[in-house]
Amino acid sequence: MMQKLNDVRDRLIVALDVPTVWDAYRLVSTLGDGVTFYKIGYRLAFAGGLDLARQLVAEGKKVFLDLKLHDIGNTVTEGVDSLTKLGVTFLTVHAYPQTMRGAVEGRGDAALKLLAVTALTSYDDGDLRDAGYGLAVRDLVRLRAEQARTAGIDGIVCSAAETEIVREVIGPDMLIVTPGIRPSGSAAGDQKRTLTPAEAIRVGADHLVVGRPIIRAADPRAAAGAVMDEIVAAS
């Protein structure tokens, strides 16, 4: 059975794509109890975001550490082992077999859930060709989802547009987390494979990552509430 969420609010993950820890704290305060789950990526992680992750966990929030680790297996193992001490809920690694196996070894018995990134949501088939891949996006996503399942990864990060493909491959037990979510009427920006929150939930996503449509809104709390309303209505 697919993991059941204790709180429907956990389905929304707000990306703290801001330059400073102070900006992040201010945003978290603005969003209040309506948001329970936050993503910390490169920008914030390299500006004090790991300490912020510890603080958010201490305050009862869930944290998705989006570092997309990729290195030789032993280095990934050691890095993941260190990160288990933070108490975060999710950590991303790139979906290369050796990388995923190293991450699973480093996680050990910790509660941390590992998510494998299949193909970035800013990529299309042309981008993959430019990078030297001979596969189309959908074929690469399918292959990496299969490899992630074999490696013992807990979930997949993919575009909502590939959710149905991924679910066919991984079955009901693994999680699907979808970035690149754009509420109706919002700009796609640099994302090329997007869906609305309601569409993503209907095709089987477990968690939706939303950044700019919330954090750059004139009223971030209202914007987050509107996304949550879509999630609840589609659930």
Automatic annotation (TrEMBL):
InterPro entries: Aldolase_TIM (IPR013785), OMPdecase (IPR014732), OMPdecase_AS (IPR018089), OMPdecase_bac (IPR047596), OMPdeCOase_dom (IPR001754), RibuloseP-bd_barrel (IPR011060). Pathway: Pyrimidine metabolism; UMP biosynthesis via de novo pathway; UMP from orotate: step 2/2. GO terms for cellular component: cytosol. PROSITE patterns: OMPDECASE (PS00156). Homodimer. Catalyzes the decarboxylation of orotidine 5'-monophosphate (OMP) to uridine 5'-monophosphate (UMP). Belongs to the OMP decarboxylase family. Type 1 subfamily. This is Orotidine 5'-phosphate decarboxylase. It comes from Bosea thiooxidans. The gene is pyrF.
